[in-house]
Amino acid sequence: MMPAGPLLAADSLHKAYGPTPALDGADFSIHGGEVVAVMGPSGSGKSTLLHCLAGIVTPDSGTITYAGRELSAMNDTERSALRRSDFGFVFQFGQLVPELTCVENVALPLRLNGAGRRDAERTALAWMERLEVDDLGGKRPGEVSGGQGQRVAVARSLVTNPKVLFADEPTGALDSLNGERVMQLLTDAARSAGAAVVLVTHEARVAAYSDREIVVRDGRSRDMERVV
Amino acid sequence: MSSRLAHPDKDITTDGQGTGPGAGQGTGPAGGRAGKGTTWLQDLLMGVRFAVAGGREGWIRTALTALGVGLGVALLLATTAIPAAIDARDQRDRDRSVGEVAERKGPDAVLVKEENTQFRDLGITGRLLQAEGRDAPVPPGLTRLPGPGEIMVSPELAALLDTPEGRELLAPRFPYERVGTISEAGLIGPKELAFYAGTDAFTGGEDFVTRVTSFGDTYPSEPWDDPVLLLLVVVMFVVLLTPVAIFVATAVRFGGERRDRRLAALRLVGADAAGTRRIAAGEAAAGALLGVLAGFAFFLAVRQLADDFTVVIETRFFPSDFAVDPALALLVTLAVPCAAVLVTLFAMRGVVVEPLGVVRASKTAKRRLWWRLVLPLAGLGLLYPMIGQGEDDGEFSEWQVTGGVVLLLVGVTALLPWLVAFTVARLGGGPVSWQLAVRRLQMSSSAAARPVNGIAVAVAGAIALQTFFVSVQGDYQKDTGMDPSRAQLQVMVPRQTEASRIPGITKTISEAKGVTRVTALGDTEALADNDPEGYFSVTVGDCAALALVAKLDTCSEGDLFLLRMDHEAEEYTPEGEVKPGQKVLLNPDGSAYEPPVESVRWTVPEDAETAEARRDPTGLLRDGIIATPSALPGLVSGSYRYSAYVTLDPAVPDAREYARNAVAQADPLLYPVRLEEYRVVGRFQSVTKGLLIGSVAVMLLIGASLFVSQMEQLRERRKLLAALVAFGTRRRTLCASVLWQTAVPIALGITLATATGLALGAVLLGMVDRSVRFDWTAVGIMAGTGAGVVMVVTALSLPSLWRMMRPEGLRTE
């Protein structure tokens, strides 16, 4: 049951890096619990769109609204707090902190939110169990495989029960088998937690896990359903 | 990309970075030689080619290495050139010293009188010259002798005389026409304040006037025969150069991780493991060789600024004083690249470069303590036999001292990684910033300890030397025995000065601004009539003046007192106590002055009172007789040597300078001397100043090395930092984490350095047989300075850390 309005919406986003435009009037919307794949060729602006939606990058113009609040009106501290409490992230290479153990990595967002170490690691282990990596708790990222590391990264992204999960090419560094498994676990976990997922990918088989697809090309977005 | 790889020797995993920048560079030579025998020389040359033509990445790495090595080499050259520079200054000083002297007037002689003065705390070296003939020798630095009323000055004195202060406070002492400048050959250093002035006032028989027929001291220079100073110099060089060597070793590892990734790309196209090590060695050697060249260039460039940066040596150095020994230059040119190769190979022993990425041993070898203790213990073992040998001017084996100190200090670099690993393995808990820092330190404690090593060695050395200084400085800081609370200047009056001029001279001086009192005393000798060895002194002056040298209850013109001296006083002799009615010979030796001074027979009055002698402001305790002028038989001018004691008003700024001007105005041949309680031996002062300069340079150098290392680490973690910020990590958490990462090894390093420094200081003091005394304030300052350098470096890296935490770091396209 989708809510009446979108949880996160962007309207006419423009963003340029120097003379190069990355977004040129992109629109986006996602409802709570929905999985939306953002597709497009390399350099099309899909990662920039994700960064803008997550409040990591401020667009040059356009508006982003999250749960009725204007994101671009927030300062850096407020956006950081929002990312800690309401958003989760998965990146292509996991970006796990190499010196922390896997369980410490997963517990890190909770600790950043002020949780004690023991409580945070207990919750982290529960999520690792869900993602079938609970046996890796004491290992460091350098000691686990790429697929295992990515599942640890998914657990880390979900440990705070985020409202929106941003996944930027989460299977980009994995073989197809590992990629499939990670996507299965990611979407299942997100759906059961009621989290919306913004999934940036250029692979159709990864996008197939989504409810809806958006194509970004030359900085503009188009809803695939409308094309079809 | 990250995957478990099999390796025959080690349990290893990839870090997933195998296809980084430079991956494409492996095609070409390396790819074409797979499976074929290639020589190590080809591999080395390929490494050299990567260093100089490896694109932007390669260039940055080579430039960083060259910069680091260059700075180290420049400091090494500068430090080792200091003895030669000091020698060059000494030689110029000896060249202008009096060489040969003559008894009689001749056409090849010049009369010379030292006319040194001071301006505030600056010493001014001066000479009055009077040619006796056309062939009179000319001192070095002058094209001719100044004529009467002419003066030639050093450039620095010329500049000082042209300032408003110089015009008011100094120029009145030089009532001459400036006709030239003293060139480099006549000056100790470029900032020396010096002058040669011409006169025609000498007759040749005056006090302190020498008839010179040549300049240039022909005697061998004074050897460094003081074992304490020699030990100090040897240790100082070791203490300054060991951190430089460590710095150079650190510099050749700059950019190591990127290099490893490039080597992985080479493995992918067919280079074998040994080949990659040789390529890495060639790359390091090229960077180091460029660094050596850069070092020579830095040294030559900085040498030009010698007169600016050697600020703590008053007269400074000329750039040309810093000459490099060709043998040392050759040694540096060969040794530094060789050391770079060895360090690179040593650094790569824990790294296996595989085609799919850089592979490291997942479990680092357990750090063993025993062999790390061998180095400092061996150092102490070398030093121990020399304990007590500095007593009674004993000798040290310089090599044994150097070896012992080097081993002890290098021991710090061996112990510190163990100490850091041992300690951080036991740390836990704490906030996120602490956890991030501790975990990183646990994972790579060597990387954390490496940059701290240099600082630790520098601090250990500095603490050792400071401990040494504190205990021996009493030997070098002489208590002059003077009492500057009673008079601040003593003005010496030439013996031939007419006695009738003394009141006029004192009046002129007493009228100067800031002068509160001028007291003149005349001294001569007398001999007891019945004792050919019974010399004593006779002092003449008004009652106020006599009160300077004796405790007088009452005194009026015409009084005479026989001085009683404390029999325990060092100066006491029985002959010094004169008896009433004793027959004496005043001025028994006479003199050759014109007119000649004759001896005078005289009988001490029977009713002469006695008075207790006291030290005058210069610390002199007189014996014999003190008298007001009319109480003694009239002696001709030249019988007495007069001195005027000048008391100044401390509230008047520059009162001493006004007084000196008045002295010069009263008579240019008067010689004012500043009275001061302590005087520090020049060479000791030079050594301590040298240490100060060296320590500052070393600390700055190591600070620069720390900064580069820190920036490098941050750059490697750029993407991770951006990711951490993306999911909401507060920037201050990451900044605090960076600070903890630096603070923990630094705290351990400084603790170890302090312990080592105190131990070394105690051993050095034992060697010169001094009791061990620690100056905890100085220890705190040294340790604090080391820690301060790290904190400053961390603070300087924070803006970059801030930039690297920007979301742009997440961009991959």
From TrEMBL, chain A:
GO cellular component, one term: plasma membrane
Listed name of the protein: ABC transporter ATP-binding protein
InterPro entries xrefs: AAA+_ATPase, ABC_transporter-like_ATP-bd, ABC_transpr_LolD-like, MacB-like_ATP-bd, P-loop_NTPase
SMART domains, A to Z: AAA (SM00382)
Pfam families according to UniProt: ABC_tran (PF00005)
Keyword terms, alphabetized: ATP-binding, Nucleotide-binding, Transport
Domain of life: Bacteria
Domain ABC transporter span(s) in chain numbering: 8-228
Keyword Oxidoreductase: no
Organism: Streptomyces phyllanthi
Gene3D superfamilies: P-loop containing nucleotide triphosphate hydrolases
PROSITE patterns in the record: ABC_TRANSPORTER_2
Single annotated GO MF: ATP hydrolysis activity
UniProtKB/TrEMBL annotation, chain B:
Annotated stretches, region: Disordered: 1-35
Source organism superkingdom: Bacteria
Main location: membrane
Cellular compartment(s): Cell membrane
GO CC list: plasma membrane
Biased composition (Gly residues): 17-35
Pfam families: FtsX
Transmembrane segments annotated in the record for this chain: 64-86, 228-252, 284-306, 326-348, 369-387, 399-427, 448-469, 690-708, 746-767, 779-802
Biased composition (Basic and acidic residues): 1-13
Topology term for the membrane: Multi-pass membrane protein
Keywords noted in UniProt: Cell membrane, Membrane, Transmembrane, Transmembrane helix
Domain (ABC3 transporter permease C-terminal): residue spans on this chain: 235-349, 694-799
The protein, known as: ABC transporter permease
Species the sequence originates in: Streptomyces phyllanthi
